[in-house]
Amino acid sequence: MTSGLGSLLLADARLPVGGHTYSAGLEPALIAGMPAELIPAYMTARLRTVGLVEAAASVLAHRAVGGDGGAPVDPRALEAVHEELLARSPSDPLREVSGMLGRGLVRLAARLRPDHPAVAALRALGRAPQRPVALGVVAAVIGAGEAETARVSLYDDAQTVASAALKLAPVDPVDAAGWVLSTGDVMTSVVAEALAVRDAADLPAPTAPQIEGWSLEHRNKTRRIFIA
Amino acid sequence: MPDTTRRTPSTEPAAGARAADASPAPRRAMRLGVAGPVGTGKSTLIASLCRELAAELSMAVVTNDIYTDEDARLLRAAGVLPVERIHAVETGACPHTAIRDDVTPNLIAVEDLEAEFAPLDLVVVESGGDNLTATFSPALADAQIFCLDVAGGGDVARKGGPGIERADLLVVNKTDLAPHVGVDAAQMVADATRARDGLPVLALSQHDRASLGALAGWVRQVLADHRSGVHVPRDPGPMAPHTHADGTTHAHGGAGDVHEHA
Ligand SMILES: Nc1nc2c(ncn2[C@@H]2O[C@H](COP(=O)(O)OP(=O)(O)OP(=O)(O)O)[C@@H](O)[C@H]2O)c(=O)[nH]1
Ligand SMILES: [Mg+2]
Ligand SMILES: [Zn+2]
Ligand SMILES: [Zn+2]
Ligand SMILES: [Zn+2]
């Protein structure tokens, strides 16, 4: 049934969903004085914290709209995931940017599969659903499995850090690619953790308070190149 | 006023609306892009348009900035539109991406303004000053102005490129400076006109009232054509492709590609 194209598309920075304006918190971190040598550690720290929460939310959203088995769409389950995710997103600027990225995905889904019931359930969450929930729905709609969805969610986060690093710090692009590659073991274990979550109420809640704090400061910066 | 039925922004397929635009009486505001190299006077031009047209048209502006919202601030400070009608979009250091390869953040900003201030007649989108080849995708702009200035040198118009050759209007700006920078403005306009195969060229200066009136007149005409279905969004055309270190592919090209990426 799947050509594998769904997850490739979602993992591709060229997908038109507005991702190029987001640095996954790297710009705020560097402005706050985090040394560039720590970027690989930053990448990993994100995967273990916000990365896990978001990947698990994506998986639950994927399941809520039918999942790998093609079950009927459950709008209430989708709403529950979205609410649990919001409850784990204390930073207003980060919720906002997630909503903006989510909106890009809604736009994509609404264009590609306007009549799909999963897309209707996603739209019912409001005009700007959080990105992980939108990602899970879009993944299901375009034929990516739940494990691929979790991996895409994490991979996209790591790549967002890597590509922002090239604009923000003197980094050799090959090194940045190497950082992403070297997160492999972490990613594998976080994917497994995300897939093990059965219920929205059990959505993991590890936080990265420092990243949240930096995001608040970033909002008021006048010379920044990324929104968050 | 034409039919101004509003569509729900988040559910609205923007490029899908293109087909509708070909039919008479489009249901939404005209989206006018303003592109051109850094510092050629795009924000000032937009402020002039607001001054000339805001009394007769319901307008809003989206700025694209490399650094936060400087252009939006400039326009808000100019006092030509209520500040809440000016939204800033940050482009992640990729101004050309935001108007061409991935227009999502700009479309979101335009749709927000359209929803907030319905019915709007005109939304102007300022591109973050980039290079000689960045042009708007027709998925974002119904019509576009490409803005050069005499200070950029007299040869620029002759060098060509998609914006210079095929934007709906080419502005040769700051003609008041021509004598000071050793440029023959009339010659520059003549060169540009030759490169554009009949498309309009406007010599503009803040110190030339008549030229500002002509600019507003052009916008009125395009808006009328847009509403009647005569104006069809046109793509000025592709740029030569190249790949960025971050793996994203953009298209640029022509002798004038002088853009920088951080
Ligand atoms: N002499 C003269 N100066 C002008 C004219 N129009 C704009 N300027 C000046 O040119 C400078 C740049 O103008 P902006 O409107 O900020 O140019 P811009 O293209 O928006 O710049 P970026 O957004 O940074 O790319 C400012 O100092 C303006 O005052 C004009 O007609 N004549
Ligand atoms: Mg400007
Ligand atoms: Zn770029
Ligand atoms: Zn480029
Ligand atoms: Zn460029």
Automatic annotation (TrEMBL), chain A:
Ranges that cross the membrane: none
Keywords, in A-Z order: Chaperone, Nickel insertion
Pfam families xrefs: UreF
Top-rank taxon, per record: Bacteria
Name of this chain's protein: Urease accessory protein
Organism of origin: Streptomonospora nanhaiensis
